[in-house]
């Protein structure tokens, strides 16, 4: 099958994107627009594009910061949310669960989040009307800011969820080399009791102990889980429990967490029966998108169309969607020829 036919099949597959950062989906062109709104000397397109050129995880974190510091108003968040959803819909994504860095807003910028969220919600509803795509939010705390700051994020999610059911859950991102999962155990229990779903970035820049830690505090889904391959017992547990893994191949390569694509464990996880999903993470900062991740799985890891169909089904099953919508979408996946 040629590349055009491959892309057509991938785009027709109803898919969910489960590991996606809103701020990492801001295109250089949109960043220039934001810079024109807010900077005394605005970024050129070349300068905005240069932010995506880095060599390691620390460089990525600095690029992410450069984007977030230019997101200041509800209108800014409305703009980037709508454009993210429009691009996802073009790839056949029917549902997304996007991380938003509420921890950065509180800890670093010290501004109120509710007005910004109102802009995000306007865009979510407009995109659902325009494209039929749905979106749930995951409030992300920055782990290396510590539990006290994470508590503000998680409790804000619980408070706002009462009037905004689009808020699905919470997670911890940031630099796990500096802060593991254990300090957040009590906060995760509190969030679970408040009715929030629990996710965690884990095993991206540290060994399997990071994933064990995330499981031990109750994480329902694991972001990255790159280092699980080094622990056979952990692989067995992940397979037995069918813990969804939010796999982000291009992200792992771009941050240097995986040096060579042939070393990436995606196919080994799949063959071992793990609940694997494909995701783009920060698509603009990594120069990828979800359809490219599916193409990569086919071209570099020898996934067949039936395998891709299974990956799409996994993304729906692993989502926080209600069961009745999952059934409808799974039936649609099966009907794609």
From TrEMBL:
It comes from the Bacteria. Keywords: Hydrolase, Metal-binding, Zinc. InterPro entries: A_deaminase_dom, Ado/ade_deaminase, Metal_Hydrolase. Signal peptide: none annotated. Residues 14-334 form the Adenosine deaminase domain. It is an enzyme of class 3 (hydrolase). Its cofactor is Zn(2+). Coiled coil: none annotated. Its EC number is 3.5.4.4. Belongs to the metallo-dependent hydrolases superfamily. Adenosine and AMP deaminases family. This is Adenosine deaminase. The gene is add.
């Amino acid at each position: 099958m040629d590349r055009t036919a491959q892309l057509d099949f991938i785009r027709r597959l109803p898919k969910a994107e489960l590991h996606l950062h809103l701020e990492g989906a801001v295109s250089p062109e949109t960043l220039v627009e934001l810079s024109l709104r807010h900077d005394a000397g605005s970024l050129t397109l070349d300068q905005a594009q240069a932010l995506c050129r880095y060599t390691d995880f620390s460089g990525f974190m600095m690029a992410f910061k450069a984007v977030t510091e230019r997101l200041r108003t509800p209108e800014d968040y409305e703009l980037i949310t709508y454009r993210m959803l429009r691009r996802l819909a073009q790839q056949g994504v029917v549902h997304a669960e996007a991380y938003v860095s509420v921890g950065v807003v509180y800890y670093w910028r010290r501004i109120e989040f509710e007005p910004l969220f109102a802009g995000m919600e306007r865009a979510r509803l407009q995109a659902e009307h325009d494209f039929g795509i749905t979106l749930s939010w995951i409030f992300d705390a920055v782990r290396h800011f510590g539990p006290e700051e994470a508590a503000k994020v998680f409790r804000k999610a619980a408070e706002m969820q009462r009037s905004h059911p689009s808020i699905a859950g919470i997670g911890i991102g940031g630099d796990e080399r500096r802060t593991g999962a254990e300090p957040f155990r009590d906060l995760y229990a509190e969030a679970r009791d408040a009715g929030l779903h629990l996710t965690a970035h884990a095993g991206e820049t540290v060994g399997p102990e990071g994933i064990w830690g995330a499981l031990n505090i109750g994480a329902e889904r694991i972001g990255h889980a790159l280092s699980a391959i080094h622990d056979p017992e952990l692989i067995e547990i992940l397979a037995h429990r069918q813990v969804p893994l939010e796999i982000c191949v291009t992200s792992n390569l771009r941050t240097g967490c995986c040096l060579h694509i042939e070393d990436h464990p995606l196919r080994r996880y799949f063959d071992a029966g793990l609940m694997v999903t494909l995701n783009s993470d920060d698509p603009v900062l990594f120069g990828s998108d979800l359809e490219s991740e599916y193409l990569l799985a086919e071209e570099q890891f020898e996934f067949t169309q039936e395998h891709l169909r299974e990956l799409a089904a996994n993304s729906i099953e692993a989502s926080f969607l209600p069961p009745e919508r999952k059934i409808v979408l799974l039936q649609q996946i099966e009907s794609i020829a």
